[in-house]
Amino acid sequence: MRVAIIGGGIGGLTAAIALRNAGIEAVVYEQAQQLGEVGAGIGVAPNGLRVYERLGLRDAIESVAARYGDGSVYYRADGTLIGEMTTSDSSGRYFTLGLHRADFVGVLTSALPEGVVRTGHRLIGLEEGEEGVVLEFASGVTETADLVVGADGIHSVVRAAVTEPTQPVASGSIAYRGLVRADRLRSWTPGIAQLWMGEGKHFLTYPVRSGELINYVGFVPSGERLRESWSAPGNVEALRADFAGWDDRVEGLLEEVEQTFWWGLYDREPLQRWSTDRVTLLGDAAHAMLPHLGQGANQAIEDAMTLAVLLGAAAASSAPEALGEYERLRLDRTTRVQSGARDNGLRYDSGYEDLRQRDDEIKNSKTFRRWLYDYDAEAVARERVLTVD
Ligand SMILES: Cc1cc2nc3c(=O)[nH]c(=O)nc-3n(C[C@H](O)[C@H](O)[C@H](O)COP(=O)(O)OP(=O)(O)OC[C@H]3O[C@@H](n4cnc5c(N)ncnc54)[C@H](O)[C@@H]3O)c2cc1C
Fold first, then answer.
1. Among 89, 210, 236, 304, which is 20 to 30 Å from 44 by CA?
2. Which residues are catalytic?
């Protein structure tokens, strides 16, 4: 079986590693000339870390990451403590890591043999036939594959081959993201994530790169700034103004910001289906979600492991059934996470006036996080293989 993965983001790269681990020939076609992304962090949650452990990459990832855990907290905008953040699974063996995106992509590409990732390949169309799928790239090159995995993000081209066209849903917010050197911040608590909740806005920080850098994300209503751009340089003064009067720690960090980038925040309604006999979707292409649970990439990582286990156990002739199983296994969970991310965004932007009086709110949020973090994508998929056998 030769699998073509379209898109070399976190989802596509992890899928290539997992598929090759399962003995399947997988190649990644990426439109960009080079992999990587401008300065921003990303959190690998316990459910993602578990997958990387199984792929033999846990140590490599931890070596470039910053662990954050106990002591991670929610505040109100003025710095009043609200409660503790859940950052580990029930066993405590898996926790959350903050990574600089470039470091993360570096670890993933080093785990793949040379030539597996083919940059400068922008897919413009595909045709599925009985014998395979023909891929057409903007350069005029065509390639064929037995199966295609669309890991090409929220604006996926592959999606058109498997489902009706839909539009991304604008959240009404944008996110400013960037990195600040930790040694520039006075009396900053190391090793924790912190999230400040205000009216219609929230602000998140966590460490990356062994704690040398602090990643920040400021979520604000979009107003006229809303446009369908994925990442663009942001205005540092506007960012500071958005959080003026907040906790000193927020204002102090923003004083040190030299450069910021901003993202329009979009998700999509859950798809009813995302596979045909030979084509499927993975990550944001399948289930784009808002970032308010820090799960977009982590769900892509779970997808990758699930797909690899199911395809690894399938013969070439039963690949269509394996893709169907993959979709069935992933659809319910990712739909729940998509809607959980929307809910969490509303909670974070509520100012949380009454949270401290409402224990159940914290308890429910913890229960949901544990449901997210305890998930063992490999074990669930293996069980499905046994059941089907
Ligand atoms: C502000 C913010 C904070 C976030 N924080 C977190 C977090 O802490 N934890 C987390 O898990 N998630 C987080 N996310 C979400 C996460 O970034 C995405 O969900 C995740 O990166 C999706 O990965 P992907 O591989 O599916 O898609 P993408 O990362 O979008 O990758 C798609 C790839 O496909 C390529 N591509 C696109 N079209 C084509 C084509 N036609 N031909 C060839 N290649 C193509 C693109 O160039 C890109 O490299 C955050 C998102 C935002 C906006």
1. 236
2. 206
